[in-house]
Amino acid sequence: MKGLLDRLYEKTPVYRVKPGEKVLIFSDLHMGDGGGSDDFKRNSGLYLRILENFYHLGYHLVLLGDIEELWEDDLVEVLLTYPEIFHWHRKFFQEGRLHRVVGNHDIFTEERRFLKRTADKLKKIGKEELIPLLPPLSLPSLKLEFPEGEIFLFHGHQLDFLSNSLWKLSRFFVRYLWKPLQILLKVTTSSPARVWKKRLALEKKYYQWAEKRKKVIVCGHTHRAMFASRSGKEEGHGGRAVPMPLPIYFNSGCGIYTDGRITAVEILPGTIKLLAFYLEGNSLRVEVLGREKLRNIFSSLRPEKG
Asked: What is the spatial distance between Cα 47 and Cα 49, in angstroms, rounded to a whole number?
C-alpha cells in the first residue's frame, strides 16, 4: 500500500536543471509581523543581503516551506514588515529562478483564493502597490533533475501528524495560546526543533523512506541542518542523530537560529554543499559545513559489485 509520501512523489513536478545552473535552498524562515513573537527579525538583514548577492550571481532560489509565519500572523502583516524581501523573491520569480514549495506554516500559499483574499485586503488598506509582491503559488513538492540523478524536495511536515493531519488544531494553539505566551515570556520558538525526540523520529522517517526507495532527499521542517545524513553545526543536543549510513538525507536547517546564522543547501554543477551564512558588520561571511560530489551521493544508492 502506498504511503502519503509515495503519492506525493508520484505527483511531483520535475525541474530539469540546465548545465551551469546553480541552486540555493532555504526553508523555515518564519517571517512574521516584526513583533515580539517574530523570530526571523534578528536575521532579516542577513537574509536580505544573501538574496541581493545570490540574485546577481544568477542562482535559482528554492523556498522549501515555512517561509512566512502564517499560523501566527496574517500575510498582509508580513508583507508590510518585509517588503524588500518580497521584492527580491519577486525578482527571482520574474526571471524564472524561484521555485516555491509549501510548508505547514505557509500552507495557505498553495491556494489561489487565499492570495486573492490577501490582495483584496491590501486594496482595502490602500496598499495596492504591495499586490505585485505577493508570493506565487507554492508547489506541494519538487524534483530537481541533474545529470547525476534526481533530488526530491519536500518540506517534511507530511510525516508529522500534528503538523499535517491536525494542522488546523495546531495552528489554533500557536496563534491564540502560544504567540501571546511567547511575547510575554520573550522566548523563541522552533518546534519541532525544541522537541528532540520528535525531531529524531522525523529524521528517522525521512531517512528510512529515502533508503527504501533509493532516493536523495532535501527537507526542512525540523530546523536541524543536515548534510549527507549527518548534522551540521547545531545547538544544544551534542549532535545526536539516528543511525543513517547512506549520505542521502539533507536538510536546509532554518533562518531563525539565535546565534545570527542562516543555513542553506547549495547545489553547483556536480557538487552539493551545506552552507552557514553570517553577517559580520556589513560583510557577508559564508561557512561551508559540508561538501560532496553529486556522483558520490548517487553512487551510494547503487549496489556494490562483487
From this structure: 5
Residue 88: alpha-carbon gap to chain centroid: 17
Other beta carbons within 10 Å of 110:
16
Q: Which residue from 163, 153, 159, 227 is spatially nearest to 191, judged by alpha carbons?
A: 163
The DSSP code for 66 is -
CATH of domain 4-299: 3.60.21
Q: At what angle do helices 44-56 and 83-94 cross, to 10 degrees?
A: 20
CA end-to-end span of the chain: 33
Instruction: Match 559580520 to its residue by C-alpha cell.
Output: 280
Picking from 187, 273, 294, 175, the residue whose alpha carbon sits closest to that of residue 226 is: 273
Distance (Å, whole) CA 291 – CA 42 = 28
- pLDDT digits over 6-46, tens only? 999 999 999 999 999 999 999 999 999 999 879 999 999 99
> Which residues are CB-contacts of 35 (< 8 A; sequence separation ≥ 6)?
183
CA angle 60, 138, 102 (to 5 degrees): 100
Q: State the pLDDT confidence band at 176, using cuts at 50, 70 and 90.
A: very low
Q: Provide the residue ranges of all domains of the chain, joining segments of one domain with +.
A: 4-299
* Rounded-to-integer distance, Cα 141 and Cα 15, Å: 11
The CA distance from 255 to 127, in Å, is 27
Q: Which residues contact 196 (CB under 8 A, 6 or more apart)?
A: 237, 240
Beta-carbon contacts of 261 under 8 Å, excluding residues fewer than 6 positions away, are 43, 46, 233, 276, 277, 278
- Mark 154-182 as b/e (b = at least 16 C-beta within 10 Å): bbbbbbbeebbeebeebbeebbeebbeeb
Using an 8 Å Cβ cutoff, are 103 and 142 in contact? no
Please identify which residue in the block is written with the cell numbers 519577486. Answer: 90
